[in-house]
């Protein structure tokens, strides 16, 4: 996982192309992968470039090959980037166990981003049983690695350190400290840190609310070459026009396009809404779906779910639902479990359904936990979370949950 993905978890503002789903069609093996042994950083750069640009250029599978080549040559941040694609099943087979192994390799080698991604998996129960203690330990290791790199003048990792404090990941939330870290990195020339600082100023978090200063920072970062900042600037202009009841200006759409084509799933999702809802003129569902597909391919499960809802063929809807589940949407996994339990458009598969319900419950989706309770399956959750889920199910009339909590069904 690159620092941009880590940042987007904090800076996405609206909520929520390759081929017809998140994984792109197979293309010819990219030239130059064999050279990764001698030039792993070049291969890492090529991989990142393949996750940007128009549909003809965007290629998840080839990016994964370059990341693998760089990882095999010892570039640990490439190992973490490859692991993220494996965790989500984007451009490579879905393999969360293999992803965890690569994250551990990166983390143990000193790459904080590997520790961070492992922490996120254990914190959110993403295709692994939730484990708050492990999450806390891996966040601490990420923090130590980020601080070491930041002290050595590597400003990208200063920004990632700020993200930990802003989001309260492994530490108490401290937006004031995050703002100080972003400001120092921004003054050092790290443009994405300027964008993060602007978002804090927009929300008045850790710093006085100052929309004018935030806008100036985003303009500075965008003009300096940060496409992430351009996308955020486009979102800012879009929201301002919507508040006034005016159409989204062409400048905002252009800025959002820059952010989307540079790899911002958030900007792609906003563009999809702008075109789908006709906020910049006539509604254009074809263009909207193209941007939803890109957002899904970049790892936004909400975009995959939008595509699932609008699919006209059952098989297509099922593929988008599977993509959303793989990327980590607990509700999508639960819905997919129901599909296989009931045999809706597929052969019924109770074993697969149970596995999906467990994955969904681990991610915190209550509906799937209730299904497991009713069928007598122990919830795959830490004790405290398991007890809260049982109490919630009992309050909603699930007799078995009441029996597990109180020793007898509740009287109604």
Protein described:
The chain is mainly alpha-helical and 412 residues long. The protein is 67% helix and 0% strand. It has helices at 3-11, 40-50, 60-72, 76-88, 96-108, 112-124, 132-151, 155-167, 175-187, 191-203, 211-223, 227-243, 250-261, 265-276, 285-297, 301-310, 314-327, 330-342, 350-362, 366-374, 383-395, 399-406. Helix 3 (60-72) runs antiparallel to helix 4, helix 6 (112-124) runs antiparallel to helix 7 and helix 15 (285-297) packs across helix 16 (301-310). The longest helix has 20 residues, at 132-151. It is globular, with a radius of gyration of 22 Å.
Features:
0% strand, single chain, 22 helices, mainly alpha, Serine Threonine Protein Phosphatase 5, Tetratricopeptide repeat, 67% helix
Report the C-alpha radius of gyration, rounded: 22 Å
Give the total of beta strands.
0
* Count of helix runs: 22
Strand content: under 5%
Oligomer: single chain
Anisotropy-based shape: globular
The N- and C-terminal alpha carbons lie at a distance of: 49 Å
Task: Write a concise synopsis of the structure shown.
The protein is mainly α and 412 residues long. It has helices at 3-11, 40-50, 60-72, 76-88, 96-108, 112-124, 132-151, 155-167, 175-187, 191-203, 211-223, 227-243, 250-261, 265-276, 285-297, 301-310, 314-327, 330-342, 350-362, 366-374, 383-395, 399-406. It is globular and about 65 Å long.
């Amino acid at each position: 996982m690159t620092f941009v993905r880590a940042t987007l978890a904090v800076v996405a503002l609206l909520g929520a192309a390759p081929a017809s789903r998140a994984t792109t069609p197979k293309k010819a093996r990219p030239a130059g992968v064999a050279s990764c042994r001698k030039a792993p950083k070049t291969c890492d750069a090529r991989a990142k470039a393949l996750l940007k640009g128009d549909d003809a250029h965007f290629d998840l599978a080839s990016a994964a090959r370059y990341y693998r080549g760089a990882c095999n040559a010892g570039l640990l941040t490439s190992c973490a980037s490859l692991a993220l694609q494996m965790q989500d099943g984007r451009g490579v087979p879905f393999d969360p166990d293999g992803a965890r192994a690569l994250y551990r390799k990166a983390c143990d080698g000193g790459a904080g981003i590997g520790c961070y991604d492992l922490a996120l998996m254990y914190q959110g129960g993403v295709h692994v049983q939730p484990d708050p203690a492990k999450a806390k330990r891996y966040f601490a290791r990420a923090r130590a690695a980020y601080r070491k790199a930041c002290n050595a003048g590597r400003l990208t990792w200063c920004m990632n350190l700020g993200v930990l404090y802003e989001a309260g990941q492994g530490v108490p939330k401290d937006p004031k400290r995050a703002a100080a870290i972003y400001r120092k990195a921004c003054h050092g020339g790290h443009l994405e840190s300027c964008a993060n600082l602007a978002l804090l100023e927009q929300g008045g978090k850790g710093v006085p609310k100052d929309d004018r200063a935030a806008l100036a920072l985003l303009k500075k970062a965008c003009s300096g070459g940060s496409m992430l900042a351009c996308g955020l600037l486009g979102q800012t202009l879009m929201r301002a026009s919507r508040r006034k009841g005016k159409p989204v200006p062409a400048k905002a759409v252009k800025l959002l396009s820059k952010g989307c084509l540079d790899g911002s799933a958030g900007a792609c999702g906003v563009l999809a809404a702008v075109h789908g809802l006709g906020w910049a003129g006539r509604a254009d569902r074809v263009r909207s779906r193209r941007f939803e597909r890109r957002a899904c391919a970049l790892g936004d499960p909400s975009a995959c779910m939008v595509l699932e809802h609008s699919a006209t063929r059952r098989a297509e809807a099922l593929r988008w639902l599977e993509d959303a589940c793989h990327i980590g949407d607990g509700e999508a996994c639960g819905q997919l479990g129901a599909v296989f339990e009931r045999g809706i458009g597929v052969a019924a598969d109770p074993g697969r359904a149970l596995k999906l319900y467990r994955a969904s419950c681990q991610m915190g989706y209550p509906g799937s936990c209730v299904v497991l309770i009713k069928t007598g399956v122990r919830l795959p959750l830490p004790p405290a979370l398991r007890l809260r889920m049982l109490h919630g199910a009992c309050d909603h009339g699930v007799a078995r949950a009441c029996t597990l909590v109180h020793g007898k069904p509740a009287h109604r």
